[in-house]
Amino acid sequence: MASSQLRCNVMAEEADTGVSSRAERKALEKAKILQRESERKVFRLVGRVLKKPEAERSEEEAAVLLLHKDTVEELSRRQVRRSVLKRKQEEVYDDAKELINKVRQLAVAVKQAHHLVVYTGAGISTAASIPDYRGPNGVWTQLQKGRTVSSSDLSKAEPTLTHMCIRMLHKEKMVKHVVSQNCDGLHMRSGLPRNALSELHGNMFIEVCTGCSPVREYVRLFDVTERTSLHRHGSGRRCSHCCGELRDTIVHFGERGTLEQPLNWKGAAEAAKMADVILCLGSSLKVLKKYACLWSMNRPASKRPKLYIVNLQWTPKDDLATLKINGKCDDVMSLLMGELDFQMPVYDRADDPIFTLATPLRPEEVDSHTREVIAPPDGQQEFSADAGGQAEEGTAVQGGWFGRGYNKGRKKKKKAA
User: Fold this and answer.
1) Which pLDDT does position 142 carry in this prediction?
2) 300 upstream amide cis, omega within 30 of 0
3) Residue 236: which of 415, 83, 366, 128 has the closest Cα?
4) Can you give the pLDDT at residue 48?
């Protein structure tokens, strides 16, 4: 009896302790919630007072600022951060005289370079009516504002003056390699040799069969990303050799690109290692800066490649640059061609290598896409099997690599937060 009574007493004490612990946790959580709400009220109150000119503040409001000095300092720091961010997002243009002077300095660097490597971003394709990402009207800028992003079929875009100038500089053996973040395929279409190009984030015209060894590549005359998105890369078409599903080559945020081509990471890393001059065109460098192998940061500063940047907005590499040119890429490259005494290159569809590289669709694949097909120079369809896949004129199109994957990435981040 005594032992039974003792067990009952112990169990009762444990139960009381459990109830007490839960009550304490609830009380603690409630206190934290009340404290956060109190802090928010203080922040709102101080914020309203700070918005008023100092001369218009009452004695009570001045007393509030004195009482909550820490809050005033925190709000001031936040305002400074917002101002800095706003300045970094602004597009800045060098005046005409300064631009010419800077391009002359760039021309000297290009002539003297032993191993010049070019890094390109979305800014070199804006002249082809492809929006950039972080500019005032960029894809991410619009999405962050809650606006939708739609565009006409990107296959209508053609290589810009900058693309053609880079091709010419490579032909003249001044540029050794091009590392691009762009998926639009315009470097390839400019005639730049594939072995001199690293498309780190893929190419919208290329789908591959990873079941074949080596990986089998199919170049198409249309955007192959219609059905693909973040972590979903199957295009719906099949390999003509092993019948495995073809996949696009796009690398989205949160993904690691493993394909040898068209990413060509090996070529990019080797080029960066040998580079004595790096020219960055139209890139914010916010992504490229994360790729350590491209910047030789393990070397002493005096032994790193000289860095030249052409971009309208701030980049995280500006302070390390030998020269920063604030101008549009086409304007800068046009002036550079003049300084180098080169004829201005022009894109000719008849010389576009995509028509010789492309693999025609099989008859059963005619309806596998609704994208517009790039028309050959004579205006006729080179591959009749492609003709059935054309989109209706005026249809808004969003490729899997162009915005859609970004939205999924943002949703996942919000859930994780």
Assistant:
1) 44
2) no
3) 366
4) 85
Residue 173 DSSP label: T
What is the per-residue pLDDT across 51-103, written as a single tens digit (0 to 9) for each? Answer: 888 888 888 888 888 888 888 888 888 878 777 777 777 888 999 999 999 99
Residue numbers of the chain with a pLDDT score lower than 70: 1-19, 129-153, 379-417
177 in active site: no
**DSSP per residue, 210-255:** TTSSSPEEEE-SS-TTTT-BTTB-EEEEE-TTT-PEEEE----TT-
In 156-171, which positions are buried (b, 16+ CB within 10 angstroms) versus exposed (e)?
ebbbbbbbbbbbbbbe
Closest by alpha carbon to 400, among 254, 228, 203? 228
DSSP H stretches of helix in 257-353 = 265-274, 329-339
Global confidence as pTM: 0.75
Say how many C-beta atoms besides its own lie within 10 A of residue 120's C-beta.
Answer: 27
* Three-state DSSP state, 274: helix
Query: What pLDDT score was predicted for residue 140?
Result: 40
SS (H, E, C) 362-389: CHHHCCCCCCCCCCCCCCCCCCHHHHHH
Catalytic residue among 68, 163, 177, 201: 201
Tokens 């099997």 -> residue:
385
Residue type, 262: P
Cβ distance 149 to 143 under 8 Å? yes
Arithmetic mean of pLDDT over the chain? 82
Radius of gyration of the chain (CA): 29
What gap in Å lies between CA 321 and CA 328, rounded to an integer?
18
